[in-house]
Amino acid sequence: MEKMKIENDTIFMFELYRFDDSKKKESLKYIAPNKMIFENGLEFVVLYRCASQERCHNYIEKEIVEELGDIEGKYELIIWPIKEHFEPTDVELLHKEVLEKSLEECQDCICSNCGKAIFDNEIYIIEIDNEECSNKVGLAHKSCIRPVDRVIGEVTISGIEDYSFLKHFDIGCWAKMVMKGKRVWENLEIMAAQCMPLVIDTDEVFHDGNYCVYQILENGDKRYTTNRGVIDRLSKTNAEILQKQFTESLIAAKKEGNPFGYSSKTFMYGQYEKILEQVGDKEDFIECTEAKAELYNESVAKIYNDCETYYAPIIYLSVEGEPYILPNGVFPMITKPFDLPQYIKNWERMGVTVPDYEVCIIKDDNEFILKMISLISNGILPAANSMFAPNGKLIRGIHIHLMWELQELEGVEEDTNARD
Questions:
Q1: How far apart, in whole angstroms, are the C-alpha atoms of residue 392 and residue 359?
Q2: What is the pLDDT of residues 128-168, one digit of tens each?
Q3: If you write DSSP's letter for every residue of 114-148 in order, what string do you get?
Q4: More confident: 2 or 314
Q5: How many helices (H) and strands (E) does the chain have?
Q6: Is residue 240 a contact partner of residue 264, using CB atoms and an 8 Å limit?
Q7: Given this model, what pLDDT does residue 416 score?
Q8: Cα torsion at 239, 240, 245, 249 (round to 10°)?
């Protein structure tokens, strides 16, 4: 490089060849996030790196002010072009093929830098080329592009600006999971109760038995006992105990004139009066006549299991990496992401100003249960599809509790009664 006097208030626009005839030049190194070092030790702070003159000029004219303010009168701009342009060499063409293959492998719309989903109207294609990693192409949020990342293109998705409220939402992941998931919320929605509790038994984590229990309906159908949407696997002893309990309950309820059964479409289970209260005349009541235990069979399970995840997927908001908690101590979750604006409007009526957030997905049931345990243990109330009065009172939605909470509450009531 020619000798030149460099001042701190000088901005250079370099146009550089990265390859010689057979390989990438070793005389130039990029160090993440923002250093460029020449072989002679000359070091520059990188502001922006891209693949074309047009893009670089656009950055100088429109975007550099976001980082440095108005540069006119403050900085001297020196353009350092290539003296002579040549046709692409074989090694450059081979490198281009490597990058194209890397881009084709990007099946999901995930940011190559932060690892989170991209659901924006500004999606950039970058080449990652530095001392840590090279020969990789991926997508990136505009805010995640590091100065040494080489911007080589942009992607636009028509109409996505209408869903700008779904920040960092992984719509690909959601679409895959929702087909076989969140069954509990669909069941609760059918009940149409305004404010309903959901109790999670965190002790029911071992399901390794070889037996299961089912009930025979008056129309000859079977309905298996399930746990979170799949046939419950029990030990032989526990299966026999459960069968006996069901049989006794069926006989007692029948004598009372309020038998156990299922609703005909949504298969809600309970006694006749309760089912009638919940579904009215929208469904028929099918009575259970007998309970039996049998060996578990995987082929049968594939027929009767109606979901892969029971609670997931469900979304929540994250602010600076922490779960967003409303001022009334509620952790809001939403089962239908595209309804998020109506919930935010409701929260704003409580005087809440929602900060800049990301939309996160709880992707499996174990993650859901662990998060609920953590929140409830810290005195926070998780709630799904929650709506509030202006004073913060929960008036609609599903509030979530753990079984041990209710057991502790029952224990307190028993102690109080004993003292009375």
A1: 23
A2: 988 888 888 999 999 999 999 999 999 887 778 888 899 99
A3: T--B--SS-EEEEEE-SSS--SEEEEEEGGG--TT
A4: 314
A5: 11, 22
A6: no
A7: 35
A8: 100
Tokens 């492998």 belong to: 105
At 38 the three-state DSSP class reads strand
Q: Within 10 A of 191 (CB to CB), how many other CB atoms are there?
A: 13
pTM: 0.75
H helix runs in 74-208, sequence order: 90-104, 171-178, 183-191
φ, ψ at 280 (rounded to 5°):
60, -135
3-state secondary structure of 368: helix
The β-bridge partners of 12 are: 78
d(CA 83, CA 342): 59
> For the CA atoms of 107, 109, 111, 115, what is the dihedral angle to 10 degrees?
-80
Query: How far is 77 from 64, CA to CA, in rounded Å?
Result: 12
CB 65 within 8 A of CB 5: no
Per-residue pLDDT, averaged over 362-378, amounts to: 93
Residue type, 250: L
Residue 38 structure tokens? 């020449």
d(CA 375, CA 385): 17
Judge contact between 90 and 119, C-beta under 8 A: no
